Amino acid sequence: MNNSSIVSINDLSKQDILSLLDDAAFFEQHPDSKILDGKLIATLFFEPSTRTRLSFETAVNRLGGKVIGFSDPAATSTSKGETLKDTIKMVANYVDLIIMRHYLEGAARYASEVTDIPVINAGDGAHQHPSQTMLDLYSIFKTQNTLDGLTVTMVGDLKYGRTVHSLLMALSHFDVRFNFVACPELQMPEEFITFCRNNNIRFNISEDFNAEVINESDIIYMTRVQRERFSDLMQYERVKDLYNLHNAMLDDSKPNLRILHPLPRVNEISQDVDDNPKAYYFQQAKNGVFARQAMICRALGITNFRDLIK
Ligand code: CP
Hints:
310 residues, alpha/beta, Rossmann fold, 5-stranded parallel β-sheet, binds phosphoric acid mono(formamide)ester
């Protein structure tokens, strides 16, 4: 196991998070350089992705590294029955860092335990998505100039949504109050509610995405109801369109409010929100390149990049 792996947001202390945010800001000013010259990085995506894979690969390419990998496991020897352990051990023979998305919760931790090279978790089932969390934190910090004193409203699929689970854990280091807006079937899991109670984190549970909730929010974090997580598709059909944000709902919102969404969206944010200056989800996705450049350098132990980039 390599101690530089980033499998869960809980692997990072508050100081680590603040340092990565500082590094992301640096990379936003200096996105192109050769500091990964000679480094080869694998992106192993056992689950579909647009943003995470492409922004990780953009991050590497812009820093002068090289990428190998796959986005379709059906085209690999996994389809012949090769185990995850064997796949990881093989790929680790070739590269300096593995970035992996997998549909099984715990797969990234397991991968990190069967190899000596670092592993970055690019999402494991409904569990964790730490690089999404770093870009979410960076987006919140950029738009609010602070991570303290904020009201963050999470809406949609809070049960299976790995992005909200990771973000909640990361924001627990700061003075943040939460609204958890979801139908009972998709509310925040009990383990996270217990975590909030045990750590004196203020939260409100609501089924109603009403004006009161919207107008007190600094951040609204919309999420997609993820069809791929449901074993009962009838249940998915019942809950998939319960929460839809429309532009008119933002009329009395705070001036500093920003709408975030990890994307992809389906129906949960109407396209009439896109031109509202409070819509931030496309910039949020762009911030992913800089946050991931910071995480890649950390995982590879490259700490002197400020000296290397003039
Ligand atoms: N936010 C996110 O993880 O998007 P992708 O599934 O497209 O990577």
